Amino acid sequence: MQLSNSSNPFPLLTSLTQYRSLRQFCRSVASALALPFALVTCAAAQNSVTVAWNANTEPDIAGYVVYLGTTSSVYPTILDVGKVTSRILPGLSPGTVYFCAVQAYNSSGLVSALSNEISFTLLASTVAFNSWASAGGLAGGDAAPSATPFHDGVQNLLKFAFNMNPAGPDARTLVKGTGAAGLPAFTLDQSGPQPLFTVEFLRRIGSGLVYTPKNSTNFSTYETMSGTTNVTNINANWERVIVKKTVSTSTTPRLFGRVEVTMP
Fold it and tell me: What distance in Å separates the CA atoms of residue 164 and residue 111, rounded to the nearest whole number?
């Protein structure tokens, strides 16, 4: 990186890694940046994002400056972070698009050109999940949506989606009709004139999560489950969802089900 007496002090960002869980939390868009960007992820802390970059190779580099704003190329927040290659940006608002760039400066006071710009949006679902994981004592890789820190076969995102325990093993199934936590319950109801393949699950209100009931006849290829849907409120945070699909036991001797949960 060439240093000069311009009004810019930093190394260029380059790639933005999205951190999600069954897709992951921070929806981010990376510009084509001049230097390889080491990593940008959502931090496991409420309303924050961590930005990171590759160190400048010049021996007299003294530090870096991070620029942040909500309008492209306009950066009201300017942070001299010293000679480190990452920075947590706290106090962000979910749903707001942020723009970020970096510069380097050396011991003589010379500065690099401002890097190309990255943009990212902190989703409401990301903030809620991070807060839930932190309250459960999860940190680092154990706090990722796809992690199974207690080796119970249930990913963190599913525990978050179905009101399960983040602080220990939990693979329970929802008790139909009255349960307030647990994985979706699937049954074949043959009490009426036609058999009904039924799934009952909890849904977190206002979370931004997408719940998609699916079924399969071969345990490998799933399609979105059709049928009638009934939703009842449990409290301000949770609702109970019941989906019923008419089936023919003669033409469909077996049927498998699952509820996919994704974080946009």
Answer: 50
CATH, residue 87: 2.60.40.10
Prediction pTM value: 0.62
CA angle 65, 52, 94 (to 5 degrees): 95
**Those residues with Cβ within 8 angstroms of residue 258's Cβ, 6 or more apart along the chain or in another chain:** 184, 213, 214, 215, 216, 222
Residue at 241 is within a domain: yes
Alpha-carbon span 81 to 78, nearest angstrom: 9
63-94 pLDDT tens trace = 999 999 999 999 999 999 999 988 888 888 88
Q: How far apart are CA 262 and CA 214, in angstroms?
A: 13
- Per DSSP, the three-state class of 77 is strand
CA-nearest of 232, 176, 241 to 211 is 241
Rounded to 5 degrees, φ, ψ at 16 are -115, 120
Whole-number Å distance between alpha carbons of 228 and 246: 9
Question: What totals of helices (H) and strands (E) does the chain contain, helices first?
Answer: 2, 18
Domain boundary among 126, 143, 168: 126
Host domain of residue 35: 3-126
On whether both 7 and 114 belong to a single domain, the answer is yes
